[in-house]
Write a sequence for this structure.
């Protein structure tokens, strides 16, 4: 651009000079003409003016043209400048790209350097190893004075070196082979690890399958178990003979009562020497030598049904002094069904039950046995088929000591008196009730069953007990309610339309347990004594008639899940 400006300026100067020269020459000519002619001064003046005007016009035109050309040059320069800017931008971008390339190449170079260093280190190590191998193969040479050059010795040495080289190569190939072997072993190990992983997965799947099968099996087993119980009958009768004082198993025949184990060929019977009658009772037969533990084990399947949501009732029936209280409550060191069943729920099935309640029916009045402030007798509230006793104390039991303590408190508060037949005869019916909640881990359903444990007062013949006064009143009330119970069973036996539950408070309270959808277990307790034969016969007749009662299919009380915390599991 500066060149073109210079050219324009030069053009301008040349034109200007030419103009000036032309004008000056014309002027000189004219002046000369005028000086010599002295005639045309006005022409001279106008010519001068014209000349100056022409010079001015030319000058201005040239200046204008120069300016226009300069503008063009400037525009051209601007274009060029923009192009250059663009080029600079491109170059900057390329520069940054190249810088990136340089940094990545630097990194690559660094890593290559590192790799090289590693390789060198490996190489060094390998060299070291070779050296050490050579050293191990070649015994350390002692610095010996240089012998005179001996060609045979030199040959020997060169042969030794050759051998050493050969052994070195052998060692290297051995090391290579060992390395390859190790690689192969590693591959095999990897394969075996993968294989064992696959086997483990298969085993896990198999285990899961087995678990689901087990769950199905458990459901089936449970339903079959309940069906078996239904087939066996929802009322089961067990006979237990009290241990006679001074008697043992061998002299039982002298006592005229024999209870033999059940089998189809040899049914259970009680042989009384003068009656020779048979009475049918369920297995397991409880003979003289049966322990409390065995008695409980016999009833355990029925009691366990409670956790499955069934209402279960255990009754002990028999003449006074035949061992009902012993069977149900038992002595401290050998507890009966009451305590063992609660312990079973707590320990084995981890069942969760409502607080325990205990009441006695004494002379047709209901007394709370666990209350700390005895008040007026309680009343039964009937709501459809369910019975409740408002105001009855419920005690929460947590430990085994609580269970035993609660049972002992109730037992202490129960009315007992000494009679001619039993030193400590129960004068009332005892009812222990607990509601057991369970949760089926397979189906997730929660269940609620009620367990009623009933120790009935003993039936007594007034002629034998020779009861008088209060004992007589008690005996009459006991016999009346036991008769009502027998009537209920008789009505149930012949499927009567009306079952006389309301004939006594005992049968009214037991109605939910005897009204068809519950499971019932009756102990008929008998005495081994000859003098009690008539009562034994009567008790066995009761048991036999109870056994002929067929309650309808027991109903399970299922509840929506997770309604209660700490559910029992079975
Ligand atoms: N199987 C047995 N083994 C040892 N002793 C027994 C057995 N059964 C009962 N007894 C004893 O017989 C006596 C009377 O038993 P228990 O009080 O249990 O009779 P009961 O049927 O409850 O009488 P009641 O109806 O008058 O209350 C008690 O001293 C008891 O210890």
């Amino acid at each position: 651009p500066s060149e073109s400006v210079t050219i324009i300026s030069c053009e301008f100067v040349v034109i200007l000079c030419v103009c000036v020269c032309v004008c000056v020459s014309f002027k000189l000519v004219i002046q000369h003409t005028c000086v010599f002619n002295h005639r045309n001064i006005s022409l001279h003046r106008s010519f001068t003016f014209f000349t100056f005007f022409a010079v001015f016009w030319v000058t201005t035109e040239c200046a204008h043209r120069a300016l226009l050309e300069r503008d063009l040059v400037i525009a051209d320069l601007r274009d060029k400048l923009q192009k250059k800017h663009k080029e600079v931008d491109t170059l900057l971008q390329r520069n940054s790209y190249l810088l990136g390339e340089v940094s990545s190449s630097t990194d690559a170079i660094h890593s290559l350097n590192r790799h090289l260093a590693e390789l060198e280190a490996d190489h060094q190590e390998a060299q070291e190893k070779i050296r050490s191998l050579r050293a191990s193969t070649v015994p350390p040479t002692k610095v010996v004075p240089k012998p005179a050059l001996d060609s045979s010795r030199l040959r020997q040495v060169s042969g030794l070196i050759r051998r050493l080289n050969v052994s070195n190569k052998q060692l290297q190939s051995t090391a290579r082979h060992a390395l390859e072997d190790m690689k192969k072993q590693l591959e095999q190990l990897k394969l075996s690890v993968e294989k064992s992983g696959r086997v483990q997965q298969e085993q896990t799947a198999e285990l899961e399958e087995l678990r689901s099968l087990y769950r199905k099996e458990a459901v089936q087993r449970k339903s079959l178990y309940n069906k078996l119980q239904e087939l066996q009958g929802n009322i089961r009768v067990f006979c237990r003979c009290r241990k006679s004082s001074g008697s043992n198993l061998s002299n039982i025949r002298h006592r005229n009562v024999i209870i033999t184990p059940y089998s189809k060929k040899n049914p259970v019977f009680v042989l009384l020497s003068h009656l020779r009658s048979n009475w049918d009772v369920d297995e397991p037969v409880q003979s003289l030598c049966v322990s409390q533990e065995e008695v409980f084990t016999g009833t355990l399947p029925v009691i366990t049904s409670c956790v499955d949501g069934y209402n279960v009732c255990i009754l002990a029936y028999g003449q006074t002094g035949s061992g009902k209280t012993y069977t149900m409550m038992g002595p401290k060191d050998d507890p009966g069904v009451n305590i063992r069943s609660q312990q079973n729920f707590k320990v084995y099935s981890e069942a969760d039950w409502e607080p325990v309640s205990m009441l006695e029916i004494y002379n047709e009045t209901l007394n709370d046995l666990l209350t700390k402030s005895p008040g007026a007798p309680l009343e039964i509230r009937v709501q459809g088929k369910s019975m409740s006793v408002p105001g009855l104390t419920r005690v929460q039991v947590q430990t085994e000591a609580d269970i035993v303590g609660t049972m002992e408190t109730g037992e202490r508060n129960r009315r007992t008196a000494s009679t001619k037949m039993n030193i400590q005869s129960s004068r009332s019916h005892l009812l222990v009730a607990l509601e057991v909640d369970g949760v089926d881990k397979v189906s997730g359903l929660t269940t609620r069953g009620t367990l009623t444990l009933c120790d009935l007062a003993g039936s007594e013949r007034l002629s034998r007990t020779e009861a008088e006064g209060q004992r007589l009143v008690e005996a009459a009330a006991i016999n009346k309610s036991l008769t009502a119970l027998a009537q209920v069973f008789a009505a149930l036996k012949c499927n009567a339309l009306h079952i006389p539950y309301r004939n006594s408070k005992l049968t009214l309270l037991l109605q939910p347990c005897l009204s068809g959808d519950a499971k019932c277990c009756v102990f008929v307790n008998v005495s081994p004594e000859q003098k009690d034969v008539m009562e034994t016969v009567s008790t066995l007749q009761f048991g036999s008639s109870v056994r002929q009662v067929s309650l309808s299919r027991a109903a399970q009380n299922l509840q929506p899940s997770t309604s209660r915390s700490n559910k029992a599991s079975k």
